[in-house]
Amino acid sequence: MHPRYKHAALIYDKALPVFSFGAAPRIHKMVARAVSVRPGATIVDVGCGTGLMLPRLRDRVGPDGKVIGLDMTEPMLDRARQRVTRAGWKNVELHRADMADFEPGAPADAAVFVLSLSAADPARVFHRTLDYLRPGGSVVIADGIPAHGRWYHPAVNLYAGFRAPFVGSDLGRAAEIARLARAHLVDVRTEVIWAGLYTVISGRVPPKGDERDDS
């Protein structure tokens, strides 16, 4: 994970609404709605940061389900642990782990990437995530992903660079993940926020024997 997040951890929760132009709560709500799971399921929050998505994901799986949060930045995880401890959640696990090497122990039902696509190797992380999801598992990606019809404007690009230390990913990497999602998932849906400043992409892992082999 980019070292900037070590320094951002202390102010991340307060800075996110500002640097997302107030879009963060809407993004979190859209991701929670888009993830397709039943009560009792297991969701992996890939790049969970300070744990802002954990309450909504826990609501989706219920008390009999499980939420696993992954992050490579200890200061971010410290904040997430405090959140879990304060809430008394017993079905939330947090792991400091390389997102491309994580092994959950049993197949998970869903994975979400929320403003976390600045991993060093997006393709490796994405494919590893598909490896530990069940066939038909739900994948939701939310980030500053170039979307169909996005209006490119110098002001938008300037803002994208300005927000990079706090929210959203490098546009090139985000675009790569979007391409991978469309190539390797089925039933893909795209929702655009604010003319493409942010995009939510959701889809499912293909059934066994029906994997798509687009690169």
Mean pLDDT: 82
Distance between the termini: 24 Å
Structural class: alpha/beta
Strand order of the largest sheet: 3-2-1-4-5-7-6
Number of domains: 1
Structure annotation, total helices? 8
Question: How would you portray this structure in words?
Answer:
- By secondary structure, the chain is an alpha/beta fold.
- The chain has a single domain (4-202), classed as Rossmann fold (3-Layer(aba) Sandwich).
- The chain is 37% helix and 23% strand.
- It is built from eight helices and seven strands; from the N terminus they run H-H-H-E-H-E-H-E-E-H-E-H-H-E-E.
- The chain has helices at residues 4-8, 12-19, 24-34, 54-61, 74-87, 122-131, 154-163, 171-184, and strands at residues 42-46, 66-71, 92-96, 108-114, 133-143, 186-193, 198-204.
- The protein has a seven-stranded mixed β-sheet, sandwiched between helices.
- Strand 2 (66-71), helix 5 (74-87) and strand 3 form a beta-alpha-beta unit.
- It is globular and about 45 Å long.
- 43% of the residues are buried.
- The model has no long low-confidence stretch (mean pLDDT 82).
Summarize the structure.
It is built from 8 helices and 7 strands.
Descriptive keywords:
single chain, about 220 residues, alpha/beta, Rossmann fold, seven-stranded mixed sheet, 7 strands, about 25% strand
Task: Produce the secondary structure layout.
Layout: H1 4-8, H2 12-19, H3 24-34, E1 42-46, H4 54-61, E2 66-71, H5 74-87, E3 92-96, E4 108-114, H6 122-131, E5 133-143, H7 154-163, H8 171-184, E6 186-193, E7 198-204
Parallel strand pairs: 1-2, 1-4, 2-3, 4-5
Antiparallel strand pairs: 5-7, 6-7
